[in-house]
# Entry
Amino acid sequence: MKRDIIIISQFAQLPNVSGYGRFNFIVKKMLEQNEFSIELITSSFSHMEKEQKKMDVFTKVEDKFMYTIIHEPGYKKNISIKRIISHKILSYNLKKYLNKRKKPDLIYCAIPSLDVAKVSMEYAKKNNIKYIVDIQDLWPEAYKMIFNPPIFGDILYKPLIKKADYVYSNADEIIAVSQTYVDRALHVNNNVKAGHCVYLGTDKELFDQFISTTKYSEKDGKFRIAYIGTLGSSYNIKLIIDCISALKEDYNVDLQFFIMGDGPLKKKLEKYAKFKNIDCIFTGFLNYDKMIKILTSCDFAVNPIIDGAAASIINKVGDYAAAGLPVINTQECIEYRNLIDKYNAGINCINDIKSVENALLKLIDHPNLRLEYGKNNRVLFEQKFDRNKTYNSIIEIIKKQ
# Structure
């Protein structure tokens, strides 16, 4: 008799459309073992595209597992009352669905959102079902970085902190994308002994299919810097633009900055890069294969995160490691800074023009060091970010519950 497992991931992709996410991959790995009956539950709303998921391009997955979409009305802005309402409606619809469904043996739920996690946790506890959380981001800590009005901030976020504590404290097992997040949940959970840190991984086999064999600096002498991810207030992309401008003016260094991603600050950053007169290419969101080709053609990558950000080990650093690129890192998170130092995979900086400028000059002037850092970052990837290896631990955790 196969164990009946529900996996809840509000932001999961449609299978066979863009199936590179953590939870789609875990489903695939679990199905290979033929021990589980699996249902993946997600929202009808695409957070990335800010629209309802395109069901007309959805390809049925050969009936190997259930893929259930729960209606969520959606929102236009990440920080908004409408998003709060949207998550509430999604959690209400999820509750109705779970109460109609046959009771599973285990629920494995991604966080965020807290509303979805709270509903699924209460359902699990009421029905004596094992409940595992997988913490992808810390709420409300991430919100406080963007909007935290003086005096009223603590009052505003207190209910969300209480809700997060409530969910964490009732989990039977804790998984998270960084040890920092694991420790946050363990602080209020007296039942779980250690928890499990499993970084957001990259599929090595898939990634390596699309690697570029040529660095563009080898062809035209112009060094390329790569950034992938959101263009939002947590990311100090303006600092990198300023550094490139300063290097061009002071040292006549020719740099090309590839920004692969989108976000609320894209137009503002495009205007600023043009004002600073630097070679900056905004690609928008790219198909995964094209992103890898551009990324691996670059000479180094940047992880420019503002001071005080709640982010820990984020998705982009796994891709940078897979690409074998040296990283210039301004993120304060001690967990990632320690990885950079331990593996000698790049240069940790502070959010200061001179600090980043010196790091860029060091990598430009020392090709052997650039090569060494890049090779070391690839070793970091193979040990910590290759999801074909690391995600097996998640399946073992599920088996033991």
User: Anything to note?
Assistant: DSSP finds 17 helices and 15 strands in the chain. Residues 40 and 67 are 5 Å apart (CA to CA). The first strand starts at residue 3 and ends at 8.
